[in-house]
Structure formats: structure tokens, C-alpha cells
Amino acid sequence: MGGGKAVDTAKITADRAGIPVLIVPTIASTDAPCSGCAVIYTEEGVFQTVSYQRMNPQVVLVDTEVIAAAPTRFLVAGMGDALATWFEARSCERTQSANECGGYSTLTGLTLARLCYDTLLRYGPDAKRANQRKIVTPALNHIVEANILLSGIGFESSGLAAAHSVHNGLTALEETHSYYHGEKVAFGLLTGLHLTDAPPEEIAGVYDFCEGIGLPTTLSGIGVDAADRERLARAAQKACAPQEGIHHEAGAMTPEKVLSAMIAADAMGCDREARHGA
């Protein structure tokens, strides 16, 4: 019972003990509850590895009244995590890269990943308003389902790519540690869209959603000084570690390309902020 760290700890503990695990998430900030994966960080908060369990949780029990009573930032961060699911699934399908189960995506996995994205766009703003007022509405129910179930099944069945690798790289920077997983994944997704030369209208749509829902679209939004190229290079280097999902993207992924994409994503976010503030 609890958030992502408590859930992942319980999954690893149950797996090592050879017993089933029942998950009762108290926030909808990640897609961890439904997956058989658990993320391990160092004591300093830097991403270390992913631990794969022998089975997924036997039961995931969600009380939306509990979710509605939690701070809204958790729900928004969960939307940031879920936002990447469709784009990473699509990348893995295009390059025929393995999913998180060691197999390959299916039509079901891809369809659920796309449904996750469409649900966020349709119901995200209304769900945020409901959470701010501590009420349960159909929109909140739909977003809780997207954050926890659709994203969880979608990423595990279809795979990860640039967005989560950039997140993992950003954890190398201590200043990002006070920001939530989904907040960093959202910026990782924007970086990934620039990195892979996504259509301008698609990139604009993701910026629109992030801005409207309150997800970061700039490096300063996750505590990072964009002018410090040396520190950014550290994050880019870690994002391109050999085991990272960024290599599920088409073409060769290098730290230099990732650094440029991070700077490009930040520049667009800053320009849009300036225009909207004018």
C-alpha cells in the first residue's frame, strides 16, 4: 500500500519470498502498480536498474476516493508517465524491439497504449479539476485507469524507448531529485520527439497538453540549468547506456544527439512560455 517506491519494494520482496503480492496504490502518480517490473535507485536517488519479477501483482485494488484526496501533483505526474506510453510503444513496434516481458508487442498492447494517450487528451484537464476539488468524477476515474492500468499494460506489453531513458539520465543530476518520475518522463518525451524528428504538429500537441495540465516543458521546470552543458552531458551520457530503451528508437542514439535534443526541447518550451506570457 502506498506510492511507487512502496509498491516496487513490495513487488521485489514478494518475488524473493515466493508469495503473491496485492497492491493498493494510494496515489496515481506512476504505472508501477500493474507491472511486474520494479525500479531500483541508489541511496543518492540515481537510477540503477530495473528488476523483473516472475509474475505481476495478483490484485491491484484502487479506491478512487483515496486517489481524489491525494495532492493533485501526484495525478498530474502520473499523466506525465502515461503520456510517454504510446510514443514509446510506437517506437518499439517500428523497430521490432523487445518489450518489457522479453517478447514483442501485439495489436492488443499497441491499442491499449494508444487508448491511454487518447484518454489523457480527452479527460486529463477535467480529472485535474476534480482532484483539485477532492471529488470523484467519471473523468477522474478514466484518468486513474489510464495512469495505472492502461499505461502499465501498455508499456510492459509494448516496450520503453527514449522518454524513460532520458528520465533515467536526468536522475544523475541531484537537482532533479525533488521532481517526480512522471515530471521527468514528460520532459524526456519532449526530448524524444525532437530526437526522432517527430512531425511539428505532433510535437506541438504534446507541448499543448503538458502546458495545459501543468507538466514541465523546460529544463528549469525540473530544476536544471540549461546553460550548464557539462551537467546536461552527464545526463545524456547516462541516457545512452547500453541497456537503455533509447536504443529501441530508429537509428544510432548517441549522447551528443540526446544533448542536442534536450536543448532543443528546452528552447521550444521556453519560447512557448514567453509567447504565452506576453
Shape: globular
Q: Tell me the total number of β-strands.
A: 4
The residue ranges in which pLDDT falls below 50 over 5 or more consecutive positions are none
Helix coverage percent: 55-70%
What does this structure look like?
A two-stranded parallel ribbon has the order 1-4. Strands 2-3 form a two-stranded antiparallel sheet. It has ten helices and four strands; from the N terminus they run H-E-E-E-E-H-H-H-H-H-H-H-H-H. Helix 9 crosses helix 10 (255-277). Helix content is 59%, strand content 5%. By secondary structure, it is mainly alpha-helical. The model has no long low-confidence stretch (mean pLDDT 96).
Kindly list the characteristics that best describe this protein.
single chain; Dehydroquinate synthase-like, alpha domain; 10 helices; two-stranded antiparallel sheet; 278 residues; Rossmann fold; mainly alpha
What's the short version?
The protein has 278 residues and is mainly α. It is 59% helix and 5% strand.
